[in-house]
Amino acid sequence: MEKRVQGATKLLDGSLECCFVDGLEHRDAKVIYNCLRAYAAIDNTSSAEELFRTTVVSPLIQKIVPQNYAKAVAGASSDGLEDDYDQIKQCVEKDCKFILEISSSANSGLHVFDFLGNSILKEVLSSIQKGKPGAFSPGKPKEFLKNYKASLGFLDFLEGYCQSKSAIIKFRSEPAYTDFMRQWNVGVYFSLRFQEIAGGLDSTLTNTISPAGMNETQGKPLLLKQSLKLLESLQTCWSDEVLVFSHCDKFLRLSLQLISRYTTWLSSGLSARKASDGSPNSPADAEWALSIPIDDFTYIMHDVHAVIGELSESGSFIGHVNQLLASCPIEVLNLVKQSILQAVEPLKELLPAIMNVMIGIIVKKSNEDLKHLKGITATYRLTNKLAVRHSPYVSGILHPLKVFLEGERVNYLSEDDKTKLCRGSTDKITTMYYDLVSEVVTVARKTESSLQRLRQGAQRRVGASTDASDNIISDTDKICAQLFLDIQEYARNLHAIGIDAREIDSYRALWQCVAPKDKQENIEF
């Protein structure tokens, strides 16, 4: 009986195939319906799907997607799929819709067929693999993403023919759908984008710090190429030309890594500048900070404030990211926002360090003039000179700060930062001033005390009176008188830049150190 059954089955299949193909060619809905009922009855849906693929779908697709790859490579066609999908959609709508409507009609019993996956999508995948295999290659990220998004749009188009949610689930579970999605190696695409974006920022950070041109900033509130590259890199991560929604968690992590890299670059440079030894042990990405002038740190301070503002809750970046992730639950959006805000915190913590470096540069320059103070001792020791006006070095003490405050780049600082810079610089300069004055006065007093003991001993040996020497103005008094004139002029210079010397603790100590006894109670200048 087995051979008879096989013969009968073969005869039935052949007859049914001829009938089904004839119905497809003539678009005879009744014939097609009866044939599909027969295929369903004998549990041979795959034959009907394959016949529809080879008879109707394949000739249409082959006209659109070139099957000769050699011709495609030679320039007959590119690896782009957008135009191909548009034509395929038209063909589906025109030449395939009829059988999709028949197989999905209510109470037809034909829902077991999946012409979307096993006929249309299967043929599309096969044609692309043969005619445009480069379309699946992530080696060209830009073209890959266009093709990937176009393919997702094509799948959405096909799913539009599904009559129910269960039909969509069934379509997505088909081997043809799984095979199609497997072709798109989004993981490799992300790796290439990671190298491109992170590598671009890293390359910019290792270059010498430099202001960006007007054509580069394009209205952005940034001054340095490094800062501009950071924001550009962050925006690239979430641009339509780069982002893959299914991998948005990885792009979020990349964004956080970019912020961290920028922060580390700044932190390393500030630490190297603070050490100020220029030793070879300094990290390679910190060398930029060893010799740049204070004006460049003004740019850095400005840019860090701008970056923090852009990445803050009120900035545009978080809003843009949340807008792209609007389909996610509110809990996810809050976590994304908090992760970005948390990544910015270490950058905020660098603001005082930047200010300290700027103050340090000014104080170091001022110290060069303060060193001339020690020459006062030689001027008045064992001489009859008396102080009549302040020393020349005084006018140079605050000169570096004045030059900076009168320059154009100070306008890039906020009023609050200007105040902090003035206050911090003058506090440190005054402290240094007090330390030097205290040292000079202490040494002068010790020296004078020693000389006085020697003089008194000599006078006692010869029986001379000491009264005459007691009325002579001592070297220490002459030095203190000169220093008193100096600190009064210094106070006036402080007042000229908006700083009240009486509010500086070290200035009050300075006054107490050199002021005459009758003037120590009230500071006047």
Automatic annotation (TrEMBL):
<dbReference type="GO" id="GO:0017119">
    <property type="term" value="C:Golgi transport complex"/>
</dbReference>
<dbReference type="GO" id="GO:0016020">
    <property type="term" value="C:membrane"/>
</dbReference>
<dbReference type="Pfam" id="PF12022">
    <property type="entry name" value="COG2_C"/>
</dbReference>
<dbReference type="GO" id="GO:0007030">
    <property type="term" value="P:Golgi organization"/>
</dbReference>
<dbReference type="GO" id="GO:0006891">
    <property type="term" value="P:intra-Golgi vesicle-mediated transport"/>
</dbReference>
<dbReference type="InterPro" id="IPR024603">
    <property type="entry name" value="COG_complex_COG2_C"/>
</dbReference>
<protein>
    <recommendedName>
        <fullName>COG complex component COG2 C-terminal domain-containing protein</fullName>
    </recommendedName>
</protein>
<feature type="domain" description="COG complex component COG2 C-terminal">
    <location>
        <begin position="182"/>
        <end position="487"/>
    </location>
</feature>
<dbReference type="GO" id="GO:0015031">
    <property type="term" value="P:protein transport"/>
</dbReference>
<dbReference type="InterPro" id="IPR009316">
    <property type="entry name" value="COG2"/>
</dbReference>
